[in-house]
UniProtKB/TrEMBL annotation:
Its EC number is 2.7.4.25. The keyword Nucleotidyltransferase does not apply. This is Cytidylate kinase. It comes from the Bacteria. It is an enzyme of class 2 (transferase). ATP binds at residues 7-15. Belongs to the cytidylate kinase family. Type 1 subfamily. Pfam families: Cytidylate_kin. It catalyses: dCMP + ATP = dCDP + ADP; CMP + ATP = CDP + ADP. GO terms for cellular component: cytosol. It comes from Oenococcus oeni AWRIB429.
Length: 219
């Protein structure tokens, strides 16, 4: 079974997707982490984020793996644990650009599809239902107000010791929304057959329960 969960930054898709996957004992695929890892690879190897050609040429040298762990699934880039490194502010600010490159998206999309060949999956991202898994059994599109998403990120960042202000985070989210929805390749958008859930005033459990009910009707 394939469950696709899409939505903008801070809408809660990763948090919810992990729980849904655990409830059904499905594989969780964090596609955003894959693009972040490619962006981190560019940083580590001192490749300009705007150098599409060089980044694209290096894709075959990038090995990516997920290792189940509690509470956070580990992301392995070329045998190195980069779970925390891919969440830095620099990577966050540049991942939209790197993930907009055609060869990067083509390769990551192919790898993501391969992960579904022998397993039931819950996959979250921004183009899962529209591009990666267009025939997914269940498509969910999560939304939330910019203010609510900014508050969530602010709390997450503060817990991790970040000094970013709420206003700065709000501006970053607005900028990220624009980049994601206006890129030429696989832009962020709700597919026609996706079910939209506004998470602004819902708890994580409430969102999860809504999705569980939807999935059970399709099983």
């Amino acid at each position: 079974m394939q469950i696709a969960i899409d939505g903008p930054a801070g809408s809660g898709k990763s948090t919810v997707a992990k729980i849904v996957a655990k409830k059904f004992n499905f594989v969780y695929v964090d596609t955003g982490a894959m693009y972040r890892a490619v962006t981190l690879y560019a940083k580590i190897n001192q490749i300009d984020y705007e150098d599409e050609q060089e980044i694209s040429e290096k894709i075959p040298l990038i090995s990516l793996n997920f290792i189940p762990a509690d509470p956070v699934q580990k992301v392995i880039l070329n045998d190195q644990d980069v779970t925390e490194a891919i969440r830095s502010q620099e990577i966050t600010n540049n991942v939209s650009l790197v993930s907009s490159y055609q060869k990067v998206r083509d390769e990551m999309t192919e790898r993501q599809r391969q992960m579904t060949e022998n397993s039931s999956v819950v996959m979250d991202g921004r183009d899962i239902g529209t591009t990666v898994l267009p025939n997914a059994d269940v498509k969910i599109f999560l939304i939330a107000s910019v203010d609510q998403r900014a508050i969530r990120r602010f709390k997450e960042n503060k817990a991790q010791g970040s000094s970013a202000t709420l206003d700065d985070i709000k501006k970053e989210i607005v900028a990220r929304d624009y980049k994601d929805s206006h890129r030429l390749i696989s832009p962020l958008r709700k597919d026609d057959d996706a079910i939209e859930i506004d998470t602004s005033n819902l708890t994580v459990d409430q969102v999860v329960n809504k999705i569980l009910k939807i999935v059970k009707t399709r099983a």
